[in-house]
Specification:
YmcC-like fold, 14-stranded antiparallel beta sheet, 2 helices
């Protein structure tokens, strides 16, 4: 009887976690952030979940991110769009397709990844201002599921309930790499300009073992709302000019009240 009761409680907990994870990513959700270097507003980051559909035991999300520096900011310039097709299966999220477009005055740089997990390769295509620099299949070890530069954002949200450490495989700069996540169940009160009151959050520290957009690398920290939406409210990270802060400036998500 005790064994039966334990199993009922165990699987009930697992079911609740799985349900909560599925509801974190909400079709139509828009999150807009301002990037600060000290008190200087460098630019903005816009995140949107464009669609959600079911494919058998999978839920497929399409997301898009726009990153821009503001006009008049000296020495730095960024105008990029990232698109990710992400698969949620079981209790895991991974990338299926990724596209990054960097807009420049003299031409655009377009990078595309298509992950073929059944055959253990990723198809890579890189168009550098009209010149095809890469058009090849890159093999990887069996049973690896990768994150791309955008799906990482959502993967962290899904894991934010945990109090554990994770080494997450990442495909970045046309090569395999990783990011380390260190989650803590300790709660923080976090303040941002968007709200007049403190928000209860959970914290995630991490290390990016690669150089990402705008020179992102090394240690970072982020704060997620302690609720079913797990909205990233604030993050601090290292980029080419030093330490910057991302802070939620506006949002669109039905029913979310932090």
């Amino acid at each position: 009887m005790k064994r039966l009761l334990f199993l009922i409680l165990f699987y009930g907990i697992i079911a609740n976690i799985s349900f909560a994870q599925k509801e974190v990513l909400n079709e139509g959700e828009e999150l807009n952030y301002i990037v600060y270097y000290g008190f200087i507003k460098l630019g903005e980051v816009k995140m949107k979940i464009i669609s959600r559909k079911t494919e058998g035991d999978k839920i497929v999300f399409n997301s898009r991110s726009e990153m821009k520096t503001f006009k008049g900011i000296p020495f730095v310039s960024l105008n990029s769009v990232f698109e990710s097709e992400m698969v949620f299966q079981g209790m895991d999220l991974y990338s299926r397709r990724f596209k990054a477009t960097e807009y420049k005055d003299d031409g655009n740089v377009i990078i595309e990844y298509k992950f073929n997990y059944d055959s253990n390769f990723v198809y890579v295509r890189k168009d550098n201002k009209g010149n095809i620099e890469k058009d090849e299949k890159i093999s990887f070890n069996k049973n690896i599921k990768f994150q791309d530069g955008l799906s990482l954002f959502y993967k962290a949200r899904l894991n934010s309930y945990a109090s554990d450490n994770f080494i997450i495989p990442v495909f970045m700069n046309e090569a395999e790499t990783s990011v380390n996540y260190y989650f803590s169940s300790k709660k923080d009160n976090t303040s941002i300009d968007l709200f007049s009151h403190d928000i209860l959050t959970v914290r995630c520290n991490g290390v990016a073992n690669f150089e990402g957009v705008f020179g992102l690398s090394g240690e970072f920290v982020g704060w997620f709302s302690y609720d079913e939406a797990r909205i990233p409210l604030k993050a601090q990270m290292n980029v080419i000019i030093g330490n910057v802060t991302l802070e939620l400036d506006s949002f669109r998500r039905a029913g979310w009240k932090p």
